[in-house]
Structure formats: C-alpha cells, structure tokens
Write a structure and sequence with these properties.
Blueprint lengths: L1 E6 L2 E2 L3 E2 L4 E6 L9 H7 L5 H9 L3 E3 L17 E6 L15 E5 L3 E6 L16 H8 L24 E7 L2 H12 L4 E9 L6 E5 L2 E3 L7 E3 L7 E2 L2 E9 L3 E8 L6 H8 L8 H4 L4 H5 L9 E9 L6 E5 L4 H14 L1
Parallel strand pairs: 9-17
Antiparallel strand pairs: 1-4, 2-3, 4-6, 5-6, 7-8, 8-9, 10-16, 10-17, 11-15, 12-13, 12-14, 15-16, 17-18
Length: about 325
C-alpha cells in the first residue's frame, strides 16, 4: 500500500508548525471491498470516528470522482484517497511559575538550559508545565509573537527527554534574525551523547536525508526515496571516550531536523543509550542502571550564535546533567 504525507508548513529549521497536512492513500488488492473509513483508520493515526467526521465534512476525496464521499464507500484496487487533516485550533499558553535555568538574558534573547523531561511548548497531551509556560511567567509575556500563541519566542526546539541549551527570541526582530541564522546553518549546536557500540573511527559525518517514517508517523527515518518527503540532514560526530560497549561522543548539527542525532546514530548502528524508539531493547548495562537513564542519553551542551542586535558572536555552554555524569563515571569504572 502506498502512503504519502505532506506537511504544508515548517517552522524555522526543525519544528513542524501546527498546519494542515494532506494524507494520500492508495489501495491495493487486499483492500478491495473495505469501507473507506476503516481503510483510513488502518493506515493513519486517525481513529475511525475521526475519519468519519472528516469524510462527513468533505475533507476526504476520491481521486477522479466528484462530490462528497460516503463513509461506507467500498474501496476498489488502485483507489487514491486524499485526506485533508486540519491543524488543531491553537489555545493560549498560560504563564506558570516554574523554575528555569537561565544562562543568559537581555532585551532581545534568553538562553535557557532546559531540564530533561520538560516539553518545549504545549501540545496535545502536554497542555501545561512546558518551557513556554515557564518563559511566559519569567519574561512577563515579553516574547516574540511569530511562533503564535502556542510557541511564542520558540525558534528551535529539543526533545522532551533531551536537556540542554535553547535560545528564545523576546521580540519579532530577534526571532526573524535567529530563524535566518538557523536556516543558513550559522547557529552552532553541539551535543554530548552516549552511543551504543564502539565506533571504528575517531570522527565522521552522517549525511542522510530525514523524513517522516512511512508507516509510523510518530517517528522519523532516513528516507532516500523520492516517494516520501525528506530533507537534507547532516551530523558531524567525534569520539570523546570509548568504553567498549558504549562510546561518549560529541555531535555537531549542520542541519536541525526532528530527532536528527537519534535517527542518524541509529542509522549507522550506534543508537543512543536509553533510546527505545530508535534503538530497540535495553542492554544489560542499561537495565542495571536504569535509575540514571531518563530517555535517550543526549544533551545540548553548547550553543554558538550571533546576537541579533549587536551582531556579536556569543558562545554558551552548560554542564552535563548529574545523571549523565554518573553514567560516565560508572562506565569508566567498568573499564578499569
């Protein structure tokens, strides 16, 4: 079965906007006679009731046919079904008095060390307790409006379980400048990670396009086929310490795609410690020391950028989290 997803709008360099998306499904012989609402449910993240609502509102079309499609339409082999999935209606994020680690702040930007486990901006399932909620309180609402009411000031993001440095824009001028800097790869983002396995070389580059996984929309994947939408992705890595079954590495992002380091490292056989999404099951070491592992072992340790007003080149760094350092200490002891 052929399946394509088109996201109409992207935000900055690595964040998908809340925007309409178009899902294109092509039926095969095994789908012959199947109801279209069932077919959509089986081949998307939509529930059957959601599929029915979209059909009834005219958001589901049969290629080559006119008029509204019936929810009980029976498929024929080769039918092309397009599903327009509207963006969720945004809701205002509320200020929340949540402590945040501010590394630097002035009238234009704020650099924060995001804690592991904190979501960057509100989303379904995480309506509050996010970095945006905390920033709105800390900055008294003085954030760029370009990101909208859901993600004010957010120029780039990192995963929930990845801690580390983020720069946030406090006005629209700073936001536009930083977005251009990221787009043209002039913001340096340097991560530390603990990867599974022992790298053969001391350094290298993964140059492989990344797009939405063709089956699991919650995951990303290296996609080299023109059939699916993917974007250039480049990660430079170097070895910091070797521990036999694990390696402490530094990763420099040339681009910034969703889950880029996690996907790239997994693609070369070195998924990150703790990453059950891209790395499969946990190793015996990870089982023994799971109390120190909070998701994937990845941390945004350094950020180098040009200030949007002064044009001064600025460098920020943050120490590795305690649990990350503890894992390194254990690995060093195991190698003695």
């Amino acid at each position: 079965m052929n399946r394509e997803i088109f996201f109409e709008t992207e935000y900055a360099d690595d964040t998908l906007c809340a925007a309409d998306s178009l899902l294109r499904l092509v039926s095969t012989g095994s789908d012959e006679g199947k109801r279209v609402d069932v077919f959509i449910c089986e081949n998307s993240d939509l529930t059957r009731s959601a599929a029915v609502r979209l059909i009834e509102s005219g958001e589901v079309l049969l290629e080559g046919a006119s008029g509204k499609l019936a929810k009980n339409y029976k498929l024929r082999e080769g039918d092309v079904i397009t599903v327009s999935i509207p963006a969720p209606e945004p809701s205002d994020a509320a200020p929340e008095n949540t402590p945040i680690d501010v590394i630097y702040e002035d009238a234009d930007i704020i650099v924060v060390n995001k804690a592991e486990g904190m979501v960057v901006h509100p989303a379904p399932g995480n309506p509050n307790g996010t970095l945006v909620n905390a920033l709105l309180y800390h900055c008294e609402g003085q954030l760029s409006g370009i990101g909208g009411v859901i993600r004010p000031g957010i120029v780039h993001r990192i995963d929930k379980d990845t801690g580390g440095l983020l720069v946030v824009a406090k006005n629209d001028e700073a936001h536009l400048f930083l977005a251009e800097e990221i787009k043209h790869h002039r913001v340096e983002r340097i991560y530390h990670a603990i990867a599974r396995g022992n790298f053969k070389e001391d350094c290298g580059t993964v140059d492989a396009p990344i797009g939405r996984h063709p089956v699991d929309r919650k995951r990303m994947a290296v996609i080299r086929s023109d059939e699916y939408k993917s974007r250039e992705a480049i990660t430079h890595w170097s070895v910091l310490e070797r521990f036999g079954q694990f390696t402490h590495i530094e990763c420099r992002l040339e681009t910034g795609r969703t889950h880029q380091i996690r996907v790239h490292m997994a693609s070369i056989g070195h998924s990150l410690m703790g990453d059950t999404v891209y790395g499969g099951g946990a190793s015996p070491f990870e089982h023994r020391h799971k109390s120190h592992i909070c998701g994937q072992c990845l941390f945004a340790a350094k950020l180098i950028l040009t200030h949007p007003r002064t044009k001064e080149r600025m460098e920020f760094s943050a120490p590795l989290p305690d649990n990350f350092e503890k894992l390194l200490t254990i690995l060093r002891a195991d190698c003695e």
